[in-house]
C-alpha cells in the first residue's frame, strides 16, 4: 500500500449511514461515526449540523495557508536574534558591563595568585585563595554570557586593563594589602 502526502487535505462531511443512531440534537463536531463498508473496508463519517440534518460537503483543510501568517512574523534581518523578546537595550548593556567587571576582577585576582605563588613570596594558602577567586569570577562572567545569549543579546567585551604585578606595601605588608584589595574588589563586583 503506497501512501502519498499532499499539501491540501480534504474531507467531506455527511450524515452517518447505517450502523448507529444519530443524536437528535446535533451541534457542530458533535458526532463521529465509524463503519465498515462493503467488502470490509473501513470508512469514517462526521456528522455536523445545527438542528437540520443537511450534510456538509466539500470542506477543505489547508494548514499551510494558516501558517503563512505566522511565518511573516519571523524577522528576516541577518543580525536579529529570533530569541530576543521583551529584552530592553538598557538590560543588555548593563549585563555587558557586569560581564566586563567580572573579567577585570578575575584578572586582578589572577595577578594576586601569580604574586603570592612566586618563589620569593611563597604564601601558598593566599595563592590558592586568589586562584579560586579568579576562577569563580570567570564563571560568573560565563554565566552572564550564557544568559545574554539565551535572551538574544549580543556580548560586547571591552579591553582588560592590566593589573599591577607587585603588591608590596611598606606599612601594611603584602598579605593585608592584598586582602584589603580583595575586599574592595568584592564591593565593586556587587
From TrEMBL:
Keywords in UniProt for this one? Chloroplast, Iron, Iron storage, Metal-binding, Oxidoreductase, Plastid, Transit peptide
A biological-process GO annotation: intracellular iron ion homeostasis
**Highest taxon of source:** Eukaryota
* The Ferritin-like diiron domain, residue ranges: 85-190
According to its UniProt record, this protein's enzyme class is oxidoreductase
SUPFAM superfamilies annotated for this entry?
Ferritin-like
**Pfam families per the UniProt record, alphabetical:** Ferritin
InterPro entries for this protein: Ferritin, Ferritin-like, Ferritin-like_diiron, Ferritin-like_SF, Ferritin_DPS_dom
Ligand binding (Fe cation): 102, 137, 140
Q: What does this protein do?
A: Stores iron in a soluble, non-toxic, readily available form. Important for iron homeostasis. Iron is taken up in the ferrous form and deposited as ferric hydroxides after oxidation.
Q: What name does UniProt use for this protein?
A: Ferritin
Native organism is Glycine max
Q: Which lineage do the record's taxonomy fields give for this organism?
A: Eukaryota, Viridiplantae, Streptophyta, Embryophyta, Tracheophyta
Amino acid at each position: 500500500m503506497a501512501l502519498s502526502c499532499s499539501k491540501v487535505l480534504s474531507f467531506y462531511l455527511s450524515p452517518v449511514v447505517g450502523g448507529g443512531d444519530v443524536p437528535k440534537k446535533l451541534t457542530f463536531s458533535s458526532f463521529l461515526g465509524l463503519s465498515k463498508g462493503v467488502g470490509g473496508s473501513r470508512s469514517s463519517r462526521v456528522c455536523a449540523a445545527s438542528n437540520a440534518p443537511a450534510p456538509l460537503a466539500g470542506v477543505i483543510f489547508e494548514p499551510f495557508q494558516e501558517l503563512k501568517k505566522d511565518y511573516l512574523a519571523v524577522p528576516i534581518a541577518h543580525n536579529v536574534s529570533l530569541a530576543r523578546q521583551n529584552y530592553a537595550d538598557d538590560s543588555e548593556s548593563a549585563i555587558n558591563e557586569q560581564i566586563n567587571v567580572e573579567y577585570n576582577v578575575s584578572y586582578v585576582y589572577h595577578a594576586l595568585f601569580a604574586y603570592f605563588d612566586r618563589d620569593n613570596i611563597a604564601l601558598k594558602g593566599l595563592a590558592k585563595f586568589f586562584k579560586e577567586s579568579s576562577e569563580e569570577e570567570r564563571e560568573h562572567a560565563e554565566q552572564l554570557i550564557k544568559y545574554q545569549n539565551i535572551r538574544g543579546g549580543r556580548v560586547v567585551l571591552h579591553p582588560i586593563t592590566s593589573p599591577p604585578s607587585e603588591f608590596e606595601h611598606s606599612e601594611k605588608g603584602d598579605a593585608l594589602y592584598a586582602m584589603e584589595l580583595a575586599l574592595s574588589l568584592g564591593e565593586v563586583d556587587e
